Amino acid sequence: MTVAGVMSGTSLDGVDVAIIDLRGPGRWTLRSFSSTPYPPRLRAALLAVSNAPTHTAEIARLHFLLGEVYADAVRKACRKAGLGLRQLDLIACHGQTIFHQGDPVRFLGRPIASTLQIGEPCVIAERTGVPVVADFRPRDIAAGGKGAPLVPFVDYWLFRHPRRGRVALNLGGIANLTALPPGATLQDVIAFDTGPGNMVIDALVREHTQGRMSYDRDGRLAGQGRVDRQLLSELLQDPFYRRRPPKTAGREQYGREFVARLRATGRSMTDLIATATALTAAAVAIGIDRYVRPRMPVDELILSGGGAFNPRIRAHLAAWLPGTAIALSDDYGVPAAAKEAVAFAILGYETWRRRPSNVPSATGAHRAVVLGKIVP
Q1: pTM summary value
Q2: C-alpha pair distances (Å), 23 with each of 2, 30, 63, 159, 293
Q3: Each residue's pLDDT tens digit, 161-174
């Protein structure tokens, strides 16, 4: 089965498409991967409706516009792979998260958890003629989970080892990890969001460079500043880091209000970028030391996502996790940049086969459920 996995994450930087051939659990081949940045006006419009007061008309229009954008991205990926659209069997689209609240709050008299990913799958199906699986997170929330993280099912497929303890760490807008004990079963998996990944760093870099740069290439700006240890210590007092898994984070915690709070400290922008970079790694190390090491050895840390290419983050991780081998997922056969798009292709495949693919130990769901909705 040939599946296109479409992913656009909390960094709001664009659309990733991975086309893979699937022959069953653990047997897959990457045919093509491409990434298309969001045009500045579209990114600004998405940011304006993400965890912010807005108008329903704006959300509805963006919902349908993103369907067109995703369909265009799939066509581009097919051209790169030398495939016609009719050679695709399925498209699996995560959509763009504009709100996520995995922990219930009282609303109109009831405790309600909620999430919203936009990008109308009916538009994608109409433009491509290919069945679409989308809207993966709500079923897990309906089953009592937090709707995230969902990638642990795929990490278990890809990285488990009979004798070595491995942690797969995705450094996207938010950082999330999947811990796989030696010889793990799916029920043994430990997974949770650790805190910010690239989200805070990217926002500071855009502001510092007045939009000329969207991320800190090679950690150069962080290298021009210094880590403010006092500020870092204050940030790490956030109760989130002491909360036991399952737990999830997003733009609601680490978006514009968090960045404004950092600016209000009066530190230089390069010092703030350096400190935000250290925060990403420190939060990961705290999560591993508190909630993973007591249950398993951590022999290997396998990095993916955009932050995997930031040498400053990697250096901090090496300093705070001595004795753990650190490598890119490329070394395990999964390109780091393509990992999440590949993951949603696999999750879509499982949905198409009517098989559950959430991991209740990771999300807190009462049971394993089939994720997503199918547009035939």
Answers
A1: 0.93
A2: 9, 12, 32, 17, 34
A3: 999 999 999 999 99
